[in-house]
Amino acid sequence: MNSLIFITAKNLLHNKVSLVLMLVAVSAGVGLQIPNSANLNGYSHALFEKGILQSVGHIVITSGNTEAMDDIDVLMQTIHGYSFVEHAVARYTHGAVLYRKNQHTPVFVTGLNFPKEQAANGFCNRIIAGSCPPPNSKHNIVLGHGVAEKIGAVVGDRVRLYVPYQELGEVKYKKSAYNLIGILQGGGFSAVDHGVFIALHEMYSIIGWQDTATSVHLFLNHTKDSKTQTAKIKNDLSHIQVRSWHQIDEFVHAAITGNQTISAVSMTMTILAVLVPILALLYIQVISEKKQIATLMAIGLDRRHVLWLFLLRAVIVSVIGIIFGLVLAYFLCRYFTQYPLFSYRGFHITPKLDLEAIMTPVITIYCVTVLGGLIPAIMAARTDSTIELKSA
Amino acid sequence: MGVILETRLLERTFTQGIHIVAALKAVSISFEKGEFVVITGPSGGGKSTLLHILGLLDTQYRGEVWIENQPSHTFTPRQLAAWRLQKIGFVFQDIHLLKAHTALDNVALPCYRLNGKLRQARNHARSLLREFYMEDRIRHKPNRLSGGEAQRVAIARALVNNPSIVLADEPTAHLDQETTQLVLDRLERLSKTGKLILAVSHDEALLQRAHRRIELRYGQTQE
User: Fold this and answer.
1) Which chain B residue lies closest to A12 (C-alpha atoms)?
2) Size of interface A-B (CB pairs under 8 A)
3) pTM for this prediction
4) A389 and B114 in contact by Cβ < 8 A?
5) Nearest to A333, CA basis, from A347, A316, A349, A322
6) Interface test with B, best of A6, A295, A309, A388 (most B CBs within 10 A)
7) Would you give per-residue pLDDT tens digits along chain A (392 residues)?
8) Nearest Cβ partner for B96 among A6, A15, A291
């Protein structure tokens, strides 16, 4: 085998232009596909992080009609019985009008249990101005970045909420004043960006009802299990509506699926961009080296050795090309981390490198390169040495 | 000294379009150890075809080929390759050096294939090239060698594994008179050590040294 590697290395170095072109094809394939996969991965990750993990959670339970759910404590006890549920939070959302001085805007105000939200989705970590409301917070309000910007509110301002309710067919408003304690980081998702958040117990006092919620949000140990666990809960709690994040936020689901499709298309293009030049250049080498192949056969190589000679060329090119490609990918990922492809209000698309984003292009391009070498190698092995050595 | 190579009713045909051309017709010849044989004959008479069959390169024939009392017509491709490497040295009419390798490595390569030791193979190749006055050309690639130099490298390559059979197709075609004498001396010495030297040539100098001359005309032998 050593002598075959020796012959292969000498031949590769002899055809320097071919070698450089093949190395460029392989290293560009790996070096560009990894950052591309990592950026798409990062985009999906950011979408999921912002749109699901920092928002609705993996599974959402609602009444299935316009009414809120009662006896939430009983429901929460049932939910806490599921080992796959890491956190569960109840929320009560109501339409309202937010006032600051003479500025006002319609909003959805959500009553939250801040400590539980912090444990479930790091709510307080995303407060970019001010602080997180303390437990048993009173008259404190947190605004989404978009709402605060719209009414020009800053931390420390006094704001008023007008929550409508019906009484004997007449719409009335419950008015309450709050201290703006924090502004939540935006990120392009309206539920957070345009949301208004107060303590759940204060929401109960506004609506005059306890032990109720418009939705219960479940955060699971493993994201992948969402659909299965949704079905399980749905089976157990048939009287209420249980939906996984795929159904709740179809935009995020569709965008993540779209990213996977783009990644697959891009990988296909990379495969072709690597396969065609490798195949063509090695094919040309075989055609131009028929007499050399015949000579090698005359000095003791059989067809199997010749096959290996050309396969080894592909293997050596792929290994060296992949090493160069990994270096290129490293620098491109660093660049995109420093200068994200997209950045808006805390929503950044930066490369997310995981084993899959690295190994899928590496293994695919290795296999493609070797496959690209296989056809010329078979052709080379079929060389008729007697014809080649006879002809002048 | 004993038969080393033998053909029995050897037949080889080639298809050219719709025609079938017989290159060899029932050729039965035997060669003994230490013989220096020259095959002559007109162009297209089957000389190169016979050489390729005897060199275990061409297996598309009918009949039998026995090499060192072994039926090579029954060998597997792997066995044939191993025999070519160990027992047969080939010198081609068109030289056929490996372009990517230096003169030294062209000679060393069969030895490296056989022994697996590159340094040892190169040392052996260097000493052989020195015999052919090529020591100052060992680092040169074939495109920087003259026809005569390339031919000397090709002959050194054929001899590097100390083969028991040397098959040479016009071995002196590219050589000047002085180098021809050098090569012929070497081949003659080899035959004296029991090697079979089988050359296709019309070179008078070579014919004079031959122990036996076989004429191959229209695929048939005439001694």
Assistant:
1) B100
2) 84
3) 0.79
4) no
5) A349
6) A295
7) 788 899 898 888 988 999 999 999 999 999 999 999 999 999 998 888 888 888 889 999 998 787 888 888 889 998 989 999 999 999 999 999 999 988 899 999 999 999 999 999 888 988 999 999 988 878 999 999 889 999 999 999 999 999 988 777 788 888 999 999 999 887 656 677 789 999 999 999 888 888 899 999 999 988 888 888 899 998 888 888 999 988 888 888 899 999 999 999 999 999 999 999 999 999 999 999 998 999 998 888 889 999 999 999 999 999 999 999 999 999 999 999 999 988 877 788 899 988 988 999 999 999 999 999 999 999 999 988 887 877 55
8) A291
Contacts 24+ apart (CB under 8 A), B135-144: B137/B103, B138/B102, B138/B103, B138/B104, B139/B102, B139/B103, B139/B104, B140/B102, B140/B103, B141/B99, B141/B100, B141/B101, B141/B102, B141/B103, B142/B95, B142/B97, B142/B98, B142/B99, B142/B101, B142/B103, B142/B106, B143/B99
What are A's interface residues with B at a Cβ cutoff of 8 A? 2-3, 6-7, 10-11, 13-15, 291-292, 294-305, 385-386, 389-390, 392
Strand pairing class (A347-349; B3-16): unpaired
Q: Could you identify the residue written with the tokens 């093949």?
A: A22
The candidate with the shortest Cα–Cα distance to A85, out of A68, A61, A112, is: A61
Exposed / middle / buried, residue A33 (Cβ in 10 Å: 0-12, 13-18, 19+): buried
For residue B92, the chain A residues in CB contact (below 8 A) are 295, 298, 389
CA–CA gap between residue A118 and residue A224 (Å, rounded): 22
β partners of residue A184: A127, A144
Q: Is B17 on the interface with A (CB under 8 A)?
A: no
Burial class of residue B13 (count of CB atoms within 10 Å of its CB; 0-12, 13-18, 19+): middle
Residues in chain B closer than 8 A to A294 (CB atoms): 96
Q: Is the dihedral of CA B145, B147, B151, B152 positive or negative?
A: negative
- Residues of chain A with C-beta less than 8 angstroms from the C-beta of B112: 2-3, 6
Question: Residue B115 corresponds to which tokens in the numbers above?
Answer: 């022994």
Q: Look-up: residue for tokens 């997180």?
A: A132
Assembly ipTM: 0.85
Which tokens sit at B35?
Answer: 């013989």
